[in-house]
Recover the amino acids of this structure.
């Protein structure tokens, strides 16, 4: 129990001592370990947490944590016959668990440079700075070079009129 309590109390907080648990982390503990579900809702968890936390405080200690589990076990396991069975079942559910990080952002396996310099992912005006082979166009890609050929600057279908109207 102490290990699970410490794992969740330290989660996301490098300065934590592992001796106190706030409501947010307690809710995560209940969700990740399977206490929360059809029988125990997040509202139930919040109400019970508020009932046992010290007045004016924001955290609970291991002692209060055990008292909360004793109250939650009755609600979570209504079909178990004795209170000791219920207490044992909820502790077995929590034992040795740690915070889950499912759905969090994964670290890219590639280096940042490869991802940021992949010209195939460029859009808009940045895309115009590179040729089809991915090599930069240099000054031509950064500045509008004015050509006196009768076309509007930036027109991409230049010299295609003859090809489209050959048969007429």
């Amino acid at each position: 129990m102490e290990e699970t309590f410490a794992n969740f109390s330290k989660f996301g907080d490098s300065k934590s001592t592992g001796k106190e648990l706030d409501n947010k982390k307690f809710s995560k503990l209940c969700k990740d370990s399977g206490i929360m579900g059809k029988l125990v809702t997040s509202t139930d968890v919040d109400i019970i947490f508020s009932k046992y936390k010290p007045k004016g405080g924001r955290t609970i200690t291991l002692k209060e944590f055990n008292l909360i589990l004793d109250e939650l076990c009755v609600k979570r396991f209504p079909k178990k016959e004795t209170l000791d069975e219920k207490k044992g079942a909820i502790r077995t559910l929590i034992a040795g668990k740690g915070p889950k990080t499912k759905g969090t952002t994964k670290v890219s396996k590639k280096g940042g440079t490869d991802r940021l310099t992949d010209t195939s992912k460029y859009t808009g005006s940045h895309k115009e700075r590179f040729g089809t082979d991915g090599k930069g166009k240099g000054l031509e890609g950064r500045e509008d070079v004015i050509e006196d050929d009768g076309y509007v600057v930036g027109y991409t279908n230049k010299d295609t009129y003859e090809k489209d109207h050959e048969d007429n």
Observations:
- The chain has a mean pLDDT of 80.
- The two ends are 86 Å apart (CA to CA).
- The CA atoms of residues 93 and 152 lie 71 Å apart.
- The longest helix spans residues 62-76.
